[in-house]
């Protein structure tokens, strides 16, 4: 059997959450991960800042490609998708910069249903970001929810740590956001989380609301499966 | 937390008749890492053309409603040509419906930097713009190349017998890899492949390894659809559950 594919993750400079579900934590992925900090990077707060970092990311992406990765991503969604096309054209491996790229496909699985978009700050979501992901809110019905008003989530953003008591509050506040969205939009058929800080607690949202929730992890799993998906999924069965 | 115990199964609409019970095929238990419910579509038979598939729409609509009543988390079918009915089936039920890997092509095309998408199928005459449109996109917007295994004796034998003895597997893999190589020779700008046919996944890992390119199919699309209801934050959590 061939070696498992490797995911390459371009990391912003600075402390990143070492929590299962977060991009900087190797426990998050069922396949090997190679990290590379992008020198001179910082969380972008405007399209101009993203554009300014493109050369840094292209260079770092090519270095990771030379090291033999199979899929490339970065540890901050949001505005980074504005460099999707430039980054993907610069390397030969598949590139994933936002979970929102799969929104049209998810919507085609459930036509007529609304897609609930989850972000840290709703202000991070706009038509420019959707267009970079290949779709428009004019064609796909969406609803947007954010956790940025929650003390618990602001604490996680600040500390990048999840002690057990904070986990309970993060889950409760996220579920409350999801519930409110479904109350206001009963036609929501699935959620897509845009924020890389959410996956540590998204299973709680799935279990509480009984709706599918897609995120950067489910999209990365799909991208990586392009390089490795044995015919027999069950372990111990030869293929 | 209430983990995988509550995990809804995948529902598969099955054609009548003998189906390949081979890992990678839809009728085989070993193919999926999650629970599966299979539901035979009464009166159906393996379609050899788009027209034959489309004629079965009323049968599939009825069967989809029955399968929905069994409480599945997502729904698919065991033949890629049923994707011609993607919109109609998805509109019939509230369960997410994924009839083909073709459904994911626009996002995959973006992931591979806008490069050409190689479409792998059984009979090339059964696949074209009509199938792409049913999956929500057009080859006028997304450059594709189409290749099929339908002229190879090995694949026709698999289609006839629905069995893969070891000696046949070697020939199936070699012929499928040959098709992919031929497509790459004619279109060096192919950045990834998408399989339309549900018989190919049993041999697709060979294409991944021989071409070095990503290959997506109905299995990777279904794994994705099902991960919407179950994707633990950590690998260790999965082991401990």
Strand order of the largest sheet of chain B: 5-4-6-7
Largest contact between chains? A-B, 66 and 66 residues
| Series of H and E elements of chain A | EEHEHEHEHEHHEHEH
How many β-strand runs of chain B?
Answer: 7
Provide the CATH top-level class of the largest domain in chain A: Alpha Beta
Helix/sheet category of chain B: alpha/beta
Biggest sheet statistics of chain A: 4 strands, parallel
Relative helix content of chain A: 25-40%
Work out the count of structural domains of chain A.
Answer: 2
Radius of gyration of chain A: 18 Å
Which architecture of the largest domain in chain B per CATH? Answer: 3-Layer(aba) Sandwich
Helix and strand sequence of chain B: EEHHEHHEHEHHEHEHH
Number of helices of chain A: 8
- Could you please say which CATH topology of the largest domain in chain B applies here? Rossmann fold
- Are there runs of chain A of 5+ residues with pLDDT below 50, and where? 235-239
Oligomerization category of the chains in this entry: heterodimer
Q: End-to-end span of chain B in angstroms? A: 10 Å
Query: Percent of residues of chain A in beta strands?
Result: 5-15%
Return Rg of chain B in Å. 18 Å
CATH topology label of the largest domain in chain A? Rossmann fold
């Amino acid at each position: 059997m061939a070696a498992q594919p490797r995911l390459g993750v371009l990391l912003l400079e600075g402390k990143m959450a070492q929590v299962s579900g977060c991009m900087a934590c190797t426990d998050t992925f069922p396949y090997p991960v190679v990290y590379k900090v992008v020198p001179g990077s910082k969380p972008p707060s405007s399209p101009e800042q993203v554009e300014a970092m493109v050369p840094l990311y292209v260079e770092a992406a090519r270095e990771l490609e030379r090291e033999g990765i199979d899929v490339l991503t970065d540890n901050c969604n949001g505005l980074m998708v504005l460099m999707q096309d430039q980054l993907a054209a610069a390397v030969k491996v598949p590139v994933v910069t936002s979970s929102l790229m799969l929104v049209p496909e998810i919507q085609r699985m459930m036509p007529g249903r609304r897609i609930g978009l989850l972000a840290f700050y709703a202000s991070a979501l706009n038509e420019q970001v959707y267009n970079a992901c290949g779709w428009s809110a004019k064609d796909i019905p969406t609803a947007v929810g954010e956790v940025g008003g929650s003390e618990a989530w602001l604490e996680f953003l600040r500390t990048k740590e999840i002690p057990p008591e904070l986990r309970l509050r993060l889950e409760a506040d996220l579920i409350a956001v999801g519930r409110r969205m479904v109350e206001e939009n009963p036609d929501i058929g699935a959620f897509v989380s845009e924020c890389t800080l959410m996956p540590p607690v998204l299973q709680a949202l799935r279990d509480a609301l009984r709706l599918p929730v897609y995120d950067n992890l489910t999209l990365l799993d799909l991208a990586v499966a392009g390089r490795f998906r044995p015919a027999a999924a069950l372990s111990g069965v030869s293929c | 937390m209430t983990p995988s115990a509550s995990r809804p199964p995948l529902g598969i609409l099955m054609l009548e008749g003998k189906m390949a019970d081979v890992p990678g095929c839809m009728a085989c238990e070993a193919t999926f890492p999650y629970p599966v419910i299979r539901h035979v579509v009464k009166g159906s038979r393996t379609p050899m053309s788009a027209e034959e598939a489309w004629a079965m729409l009323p049968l599939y609509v009825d069967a989809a409603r029955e399968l929905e009543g069994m409480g599945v988390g997502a729904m698919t079918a065991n033949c890629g040509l049923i994707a011609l009915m993607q919109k109609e089936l998805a509109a019939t039920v509230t369960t997410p419906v994924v009839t083909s890997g073709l459904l994911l092509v626009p996002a995959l095309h973006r992931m591979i930097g806008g490069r050409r998408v190689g479409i792998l199928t059984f009979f090339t005459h059964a696949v074209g713009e009509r199938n792409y449109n049913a999956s929500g996109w057009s080859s006028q917007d997304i450059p594709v190349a189409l290749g099929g295994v339908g002229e190879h004796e090995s694949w026709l034998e698999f289609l006839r017998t629905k069995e893969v003895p070891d000696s046949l597997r070697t020939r199936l893999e070699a012929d499928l890899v040959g098709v992919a190589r031929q497509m790459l020779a004619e279109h060096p700008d192919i950045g990834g492949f998408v399989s339309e046919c549900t018989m190919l996944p049993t041999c697709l890992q060979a294409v991944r390894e021989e071409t070095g390119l990503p290959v997506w199919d109905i299995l990777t699309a279904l794994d994705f659809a099902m991960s919407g209801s179950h994707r633990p934050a950590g690998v260790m959590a999965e082991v401990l559950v």
